[in-house]
Amino acid sequence: MKKKILVFIVMLCLSLFAYNKVQAGFIIDYGELSGLPGSGEANWMAWWLTDGDGRPAEILTEDNTNSGDGEDIGYSELSVIFPTLDSDTNLEWIIQVENFATPPIPGVLDDVNMLFGGLGSFSETLWQTTFDWTNTEAFTDHGIVASEEAFACPIIYDPALVEPNTYKFYGQPGTYLIYRSQNASGAGNGASNGRYFYFDTVTTTSTIGSFVDESTGSNWYIVFQVDETNTPIGCHSEPADPTGVSITDFSAQYSAEKTAIELAWQTASEVDVLGFNVLRSTSEVGAQVQINEEQVDVAHPGQMDGSRYTFDDNSVSIGQTYYYWIELIKTDSSRESVGPEAAFAGFRLFLPFVN
Prior knowledge:
By secondary structure, this protein is mainly beta. It folds into two domains: about 1-240, no CATH class; about 245-345, Immunoglobulins (Immunoglobulin-like, Sandwich). The protein has helices at about 1-25, 60-65, 80; strands at about 30-35, 40-45, 60, 95, 110-120, 125-130, 140-145, 145-150, 155, 165-170, 175-180, 195-205, 210, 220-225, 240, 245-255, 260-265, 275-280, 290, 295, 310-315, 320-330, 335-345. The protein has an eight-stranded antiparallel sheet. Strands 18, 19, 20, 22 and 23 form a five-stranded antiparallel sheet that branches. A four-stranded mixed sheet has the order 13-10-9-15, with no helix packed on it. Strand 5 and strand 6 form a beta hairpin. The longest helix is centred in the first third of the chain and has 23 residues, at about 1-25. The radius of gyration is 27 Å and the shape is elongated.
């Protein structure tokens, strides 16, 4: 029995020695992503330790390594910092594993998981890698990480004035984990220090999810999708771009084949819009009535990309003229309308004048 205890103590001391040895070094892990996304075209999050429910005990993001560059930049040019390590001009992902609040223990619990999400032209692209943090090298190059197709990163919105503690996000239906950071980066740029801890779980059946946080002070949030074991399967959320949205090519036209009035509109961008309603009236200045039962969700929430939408009004009376408006539902709970567009339900007959 004493011998077993002695062996355990020796193994523990060796582990602690290895841990201290690695901690004392200046270690940076880095690599590239296939396709070579540039600055602002990908984000990353990393974790190693999980809790009893399988959730990451802590998430480290690119804000930690690149906090001086601003929020969600994601990459640095390694050759600028360490010219002898990198001779090309490709941007690298860089992580300092010791920046975890609870760093891995080399040789014991040392698997570091990293998940990268494509942004902009790389949207719907995912990169994943796992490496052992067991070496004592000052710098470790992990090469090029292969890509795969995935859903776009979720978009998270700041609370609206009417619901100051409610945060909404867009993504594929599923289960999402909400992680919160309450410490600034120190760079004075409005970013967090890159360390996020579990806050809440939200399951959605549509593209819209929400959570409430009534705490005060500076808070930053990331949202990401997980599977049934709480393992991350999607990239973390990005804040919505502050620019607006515009509707172009709004039209209304009667279809004899459908016996309905067909509406169509095009968006130029969909940054701060949750969805649309279709409003109708029998006069240009009459009361406007919503005729869609459910909100028409935007196709590219939070994105600069636009999309085309159609809606058929099947509840029309032949011989009646209708006026339509498209109502934009904004992320700040405000609403604005575009229109009206008029359409006559049926065909007008013009008879020749006979003397």
